[in-house]
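seq/struct pair 1
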Amino acid sequence: MAKNWAMCVGINQYDNLSPLNYAVRDAEAMRDYFTEVGFDQVYLFTDNSPAITDAGKPFNSQPSFGSLRRFLRVRFEKAFLSSGDNFWFFFSGHGMRHGEKDYLLPCDGDPHPEGIEETAIPLSYVSERLRRCGADNVVLLLDACRNEGGSKGIGLGEEEQQGVITLASCSPSERSYEIEALQQGSFTYALLEALRIQGVGNCATVERLEQRLRYRIPEINQSHRKPKQNPYAVVEPAFKYHLILLPNRATLQDVATLKLAAFEAQTEGNFVLAEQLWTRILAVSPADAQALKALRQIWTRSPDTQSFKPVSNLTEDTSSKSSPSLLVTPSRSPQILTKTLPGDIKLEMVKIPAGSFTMGSDEYDGEKPKHQVKLQEFYLGKYPVTQEQYQAVMGKNPSNFKDNPKNPVEQVSWNDAQEFCKKLNQLIAGKDFRLPTEAEWEYACRAGTQTRYYFGDDAAKLGDYGWYDENSGSKTHPVGQKKPNDWGLYDMSGNVWEWCEDPYHDSYANKPENIKNNGNTIWSSSDASLRVLRGGSWFFDSRLCRSADRYWFDADFRFDLIGFRLVLSSF
């Protein structure tokens, strides 16, 4: 499990600044919260906190310049946490900006321009020392800028702290206020309120916490007749907006968002970032099979797979000694089989001719080696299953994007798709609807081609054929609005990823000959927890919409990027 450590600083009494009323109370309340939720270690620096004795020689916990600098220098000299862990730093007190730098003022800090550099602590120094702890996630919570003057421009600025999540109580030139009725600063009150939310609306991620504070703090100030105070966040790098701060409150959607970011980093060859993200997922879900599998792939990759190099023109290897592909001549007038579902909803299936093709590509390890596969005739859905079709069979619509009943159904797991097929086969007697095998899917997608996409090698043309990150507007679209492939199949690239029947295999290296000779047969596995996805989606870029691209998710995983398409194997 991930470790969580924290350091809380609260200062009421200042030598050279006006006193504060509730800064110590704020720090103690944060200490109590961190302890309550099971943090491994919490350091407290307040006007009257006891000495810190966990690291050998005791540290003075008075929040003076000398004590704070010494603790940050000595305690953080060597790493004591690791990737997947978190360190939280909370400061409640005076802060100011000077010479384009942000400073936290200790109890003996001097705000005069000639004294600040000698008696205040640069925020950049704090974050640099905290990063030495070894945790790959450092969170700064700053309830500062509580100066006593009326002039503007002396609050903390928006200085970016490398590799750190910063949540500040107010924007530059604003002031951070204490609320007498609450006996707390409004930032700390709202922060604790947000962190304690359970169920719907919880603030488990950086993004939701920041959004909650952004509207809640002005609301609190207004209700207590205090001036405007707008909190802000500086998150570096930007992907940390999706990081999960509170694992026990995280939703499946939170984990899914992290998984997608990890997958994208791994696909781009950014293995350092991918490893961090997959490790983060394990911190939330220690037994996650997908994260474990991905990390094993990263740790055991060979030197020549350190980065992926896109191939601009994929052509069939004519020097191969294996049997040549029997490329079937595309039919310009596909044979359609139409079935009627309850509510007079039509289900159209396209006849796919028997033949053979070269499956896979040389672009990515998971798509190697290219190999010949033979298939018998079958029918494949003209479109992905739509929301109205799913509603007609299942009596419900789990989708996120419900603006059009002809949008592809999403938020369906592989298990959900199996249940759909079971009920559909009960409705239409004598038929055997199921998910396509991975070979059936790629064979039908290629429609007799051997290029990167079924329309050629030029990714710039993808917008004519599918919905992906550059044209989707971050949502699904009604099926059939783009051009079909040469066999009359629509949305084979983009819109939603599509489940296949097969369990996921790391590559085709060990594919049995009997499966190659009959691609209509499922390639089984002793580990069937991960199932294949094909086709890309509205969220991802053109690379993931290639005909050979493949990925996987847990069989019970639901997300608004994922749907499915049907096969009919008995006519």
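seq/struct pair 2
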Amino acid sequence: MKGWIYVLSNQSVPDWLAIGYADTDPAALVHQYGNSGIKLPYPFELQYALRTPYPKTLLQKIHDELAEKCVNPEHNSDWFECDLLTALRLVRKIAGHSATGEAFYGQARRLVEQAQAAEPPPSVMTATRLSDDEYADDTPVIQQVRTAPPIQRGQRPSPLIPPQPPRPAPPEPEKPAPPKEEPKWLVSALIVTFVILVIIAVFLGMRMFGYF
């Protein structure tokens, strides 16, 4: 069943907001609150209304998120100690693509206008007051044209960033190991041995030929 999630406020309790749902025109709730047992010196004001096919389901999720801010959790109150901007962001976030229309009023409209004046958003939003017949129409009456988010461009490097340390030099290629030298005493011993063998060979040769 289609319906509306609404956000009401009252100057008597500036830090409180009423977040509930209605099957028809949310503006009629302003008069209902004024005629109910809640008596406050200032009138109730409708700040925001969002149309969705699932008002009860989404409202339960919103109340669960704001459970710690409920002014009377024992009686399942619709009143929460929450600022308007936080409430608007939460309702729109939970509704997501199920929202078929939305309207901003009073302070909520001024917040949107201030945000648009400070930094024009990438989407074109129309928030207008609707008649009772338009609320009952099945066709969404408040349209929001969604566009792709702006391309994130890279940031220039800050001049305050300290210089990066130099890169380490590449390791030098390993040099071939020099040939292993034989100890000097070993060379001397080989020479002496060779000389002795030569002398013995000469001596044996002379003896064989009868020189002595």
